[in-house]
Amino acid sequence: MGVEEEFLLVAPGSGATVPLAEKVVARASAAELPVGATVQRELRDTQVEAATGVCTSAADLRVHLEAGRRAVAGAARDHGAVVVASGSPVRGSGGAVPSSLARFAAIDDMYGEVTRDYEACGCHVHIGVADKDTAVAVVNHVARWLPTLLALSVNSPFYRERDTGYGSWRIVQQSRFPGSGLAPYLPDHAAFRAEVGRLIEYGVVADEAQTFWFARPSPRLPTVEFRVADTASTVDEAVLQALLARALVRTALADLGRGREAGPVPAQAGGARGWDGPRHGRARPGGHLGLDRRGPGTDLAAALLDHVRDALADTGDLLAVHALLDRLRSGGTGADRQRRTAGVAGLPAVVTELTLRDETGAAGVTPVRD
């Protein structure tokens, strides 16, 4: 498994995003990182991405995540900025600055105003599979559980100093693009490539890497790529997303090994749950695609845990995931915590709380060790 974390570059004090990606990535890339870990550019010059190498255990993944966060935080400090772990800008934005990279500039030209204010940051999880056809079959299987993963990850309630009323404003912004939401149900990788090829031919996505589906076969790696989660405010929550994603893949593979193919998710139900998750997070009832019922987000998390329990036990992650979910239940999602801090101390305190500045990836957070 591996994780890509997108972060915002922010000016201390004002909280406005700043276009320093080129300088920060160059400095962070010179830092000592675990084998395979990288720091790279993102769509906006106000964003950076820290990617882990290939990891086989939660402990290994945690080391990679902490190292990446330290590297980008240190590099940003050297250029007078800080790094913020939020799915959307809490305060001001520098998103109108055109990208200095040719591919991203072409995307800006394709989408116009849709990308001008787009500084959304996600936590993308890659889980290795045997081949591309298997990746498509696994995406079909995990689709029902993706809105639950989103509800557990919401961490973008504010946008440019406004409370949007959503737990994840990032997903709302993302929904404006073609190729978003749940991926279409497809029989094999040839059909998947044909579907993406049609989007490219129609001129609505730039290339095969441009789709925004919640989960998809990676266009570059032999993995299933989960793209549903907001950037995690803590390493703990990034680890939780990765462990749940791996358990979902292992559970799907076990089902496929028994000859159990997944059925398609009804389009209207998938779209509705894809809206409900970012709107309410774990706090309000929402339709459960895995169980075809409604219930609070914490109940849905329990249902997800039951679904992947055997897979978590097989990898030795069951106790750690229990502990991480317990912490989420007691402390709330990233969106819950952002609102709680804003209510007590205002938006500047939210930015401070989300700023990466130590080995845990956020101030005052003690990690759950495996």
Description:
With 370 residues, the chain is an alpha+beta fold. Helices cover 46% and strands 14% of the residues. The protein has helices spanning 21-29, 58-78, 102-111, 113-116, 132-142, 146-153, 169-174, 189-201, 235-257, 267-280, 297-315, 318-331, 334-345, 347-354, and strands spanning 2-10, 38-41, 47-51, 82-84, 122-128, 158-159, 162-163, 180-181, 212-213, 215-217, 223-230, 286-288, 293-295. A hairpin with a 5-residue loop joins strand 10 and strand 11.
Structure characteristics:
two-stranded antiparallel ribbon; 370 residues; alpha+beta; Creatine Kinase, Chain A, domain 2; 7-stranded antiparallel beta sheet; disordered C terminus; single chain; 13 strands
What is the secondary structure topology, with strand pairs?
Blueprint: E1 2-10, H1 21-29, E2 38-41, E3 47-51, H2 58-78, E4 82-84, H3 102-111, H4 113-116, E5 122-128, H5 132-142, H6 146-153, E6 158-159, E7 162-163, H7 169-174, E8 180-181, H8 189-201, E9 212-213, E10 215-217, E11 223-230, H9 235-257, H10 267-280, E12 286-288, E13 293-295, H11 297-315, H12 318-331, H13 334-345, H14 347-354
Parallel strand pairs: 8-9
Antiparallel strand pairs: 1-3, 1-4, 1-5, 2-3, 5-11, 6-7, 10-11, 12-13
